[in-house]
Amino acid sequence: MAVVPFLDGQEFLGVRFDLGPGEIVAGSLVCAGAALIPDLDAKSSTITNTYGFVTRWLSALFNWMFDGHRNGTHSLLFAALIGGLTQALAMWSPMAVQIFVFLLLGIGFNGLGLGSDKNSVAASVINAMATGAVTLALFTAGVDYSWIGLAVAFGCLLHFGGDMATELGVPLMWPISKYRVGQNIGFTTDGKVERNLVTPAMAISVVLLSLYLFPWPELLPEV
C-alpha cells in the first residue's frame, strides 16, 4: 500500500499502473499472500499447512529444489522466478489468475489467523468463505490483474526485508553466493522484539496508510 501513490500512472517493464480502489485493495492482498510464499520451504510454516497435502507436497519439493529452509526461496532469483511465472499465468488465462488470486488470499488470511488453527474445520470453512467473497467482489469490480507478477515479486521482497532484520539473515544472491544479509545482527524470530515492537508497529502502519490512501469520509453514506 505504501508504494501505491508512486506507482499510479507509471509504466514499468511494459506494464502501466492505472490503479483504482479495486486495484489498490487487490494489490495489497496479493502482496500479503505472496509475502508468505518464500516460507513454502519450511514444514511448519503457515503456507505449508494452508492447503493440506498439496502445499505440504510443494513444501517438500521447494525444500529440495532450493537447498533447504531459508536458502534459495529467499533469494532475488526466486522473487524474479515466481513473479515471472505469475505474469506468464496472467497472460495465458484470466480465469487461471482468478484461481491464483483466490489461493493467495486464502494464504494471506490464514497468515492473519483466519485459518485452519489446530485443523479446525470451522476455521477452514470461514477462511474459504471470506476468501471466496473477496475474490468474487474483486472480480465483479472488474479488477485488472496485468500487474500481478510485479505484485507477487514485491511481496517476496517484503518477506526478505523482514527476514533480513532477524539474526538468521537472507542469502539474497543465492546460488551465486550464500552470504546472508543481516546474519547475527538482527532480532530473534518470534522473540520479544518481534512480538512487542515489530508486530504492533506494522499493524499501526497499515492503519495509518489506509487512512492516508482511502477517502473514507467520501465512502460513508450521507445521512
TrEMBL record:
One GO MF annotation is:
hydrolase activity
Keywords (alphabetical) are: Hydrolase, Membrane, Transmembrane, Transmembrane helix
Q: Name one Pfam family in it.
A: YdjM
Query: Can the keyword Cell division be found in this entry's annotation?
Result: no
What protein does this entry describe? Answer: Membrane-bound metal-dependent hydrolase YbcI (DUF457 family)
Q: Where are the transmembrane segments?
A: 72-90, 96-114, 121-141, 147-176, 197-214
Is ATP-binding found in the keyword set? Answer: no
Q: Give the organism, scientific name.
A: Streptomonospora salina
